[in-house]
Amino acid sequence: MEEERRILFGKYEMGRLLGKGTFAKVYYGKEITNGESVAIKVINKDQITKRNGMMDQIKREIAIMKLVRHPNVVELKEVMATKTKIFVVMEFVKGGELFAKVAKGKLKEDSARRYFQQLISAVEFCHSRGVSHRDLKPENLLLDENGDLKISDFGLSALPEQLLQDGLLHTQCGTPAYVAPEVLRKKGYDGAKADIWSCGVVLYVLLAGFLPFQDENLMNMYKKIFKADFDFPPWFSPESKRLISKLLVVNPDKRISIPAIMRTSWFRKNFNPPIGFKIDEPINDDEEETPGTPETPKFFNAFEFISSMSSGFDLSSLFENKRKLRSMFTSRWSVTEIMAKIEGIGKEMNMKVKTTKDFKVKLQGKTEGRKGQISVTAEVFEVAPEVAVVEFCKSAGDTLEYNRLYEEEVRPALKDLVWSWHGDNNNNSISTINNNINIINHNHDNNNNSNSNISDGSFGSDCDCESI
User: Fold this and answer.
1) Alpha-carbon torsion (41, 42, 45, 46), positive or negative
2) CA dist., res. 336 & res. 316, Å (int)
3) How far is CA 464 from CA 30, 133, 172, 317, 326, in A?
4) Which partner from 55, 98, 161, 356 sits 20 to 30 angstroms from 18, CA to CA?
């Protein structure tokens, strides 16, 4: 079959060539099962392995695209490979580059504002993930069928591990007309602040139809950038000029920040913050209980209990296809007391709370985060008559927002409840806890003259958590 129409891994039909670069070609494709359009980037392994550091750069770009899942960022769907090629399957954005619009002339202020709002929303999200793009320009801003902006091309992007000991980036990269002055100086720079300068240049271009810094001689252009030497066309509104004047500030420490940008009246006009993801598990007050729910909590699988007590024993990655975001601890409190305590913590944090008969407490935030409202499920298991395991799972919402909420509010509030945290090195050792459980079971046997119901490992725990 011809390469242009071949079937890829039985999942995608590859079609026409969309574009090509030094090391890759991009094809139009369709997912066979649902007919969804995709873009498939085909990278030749032989070519990139011959160039030092190129494979690392591609791996970093893929890792970054997995991190920055946002409505205004081109979505990475999956990555596949053969012995000779890497196939990167991405969202197909068919509206073309924003550059094509600007090439026809300046945009109306409301249109420029809408694109700038979406750009800043996406850049702010990337920065919250520790990602700086470092090559923001209209050529790397695509438009979908609804006219919404999508940031693309993370090939020059940086992660925190690329910072040197001074906490700064030192690689000179980007497109000269859009690059920040501190990048050109070769003395180190903050990637996020450099991105903000580039956003300022993009906004100027959208409103003017041409660049703020331009000269046939590259060195003369750099001199203009170092001095922020530019003029405003007469049609710029006073508010847009004020904002651009704060964006294109030579000193990065005095340059406006993204939160400050989002507080300006010019930016706030008709601004609708994007909510990227809906709540996976909404808490419904009218939700009916499942018939036949147990009157006592499930026993925690013995193997799972032992492995949960130390990160060194955590073998879950061998059995789970997807990593789940969860935390566990043991408690000497009764199940009823644990449920009441968690319910009380949720109410104190102004969260919506629902308890179920199967010993779960569902907590849901009332405010919208980056990916909707945070939703958390706590489930109680019995290990022995006087020992319980409590498992917390993020059911919906943004992972970083959940981590902050859990570490700064939930975990401190659970202090009195906890006997031992999962994986904490400074907690009781596994042997100590196991000995204590044996003593508890022995005392329970003597008091009741019967065998305690310790799980034989035939009952596992299922936690319906959202994949990260």
Assistant:
1) negative
2) 29
3) 31, 34, 45, 16, 10
4) 55
Q: Given the DSSP bridges, would you call strands 37-44 and 85-91 parallel, antiparallel or unpaired?
A: antiparallel
**Please, what are the averages of pLDDT over each run of 10 residues along the chain (468 residues)?**
68 92 89 95 89 87 91 95 93 94 96 98 94 96 96 93 92 95 95 98 98 95 97 97 98 97 96 61 45 52 46 38 59 81 85 79 76 79 72 77 80 80 51 46 48 34 34
Tokens of 141: 């801003």
Catalytically annotated residues: 135
Whole-number Å distance between alpha carbons of 444 and 428: 22
Give the chain's domains with CATH numbers: 3-91 (3.30.200.20), 98-268 (1.10.510.10), 302-448 (3.30.310.80)
pTM recorded for the entire structure: 0.64
Residues 248-282 as b or e (16 or more Cβ within 10 Å = b):
bbeebeebbebeebeeeebbeeeeeeeebbebebe
Q: Which residues contact 215 (CB under 8 A, 6 or more apart)?
A: 221, 224
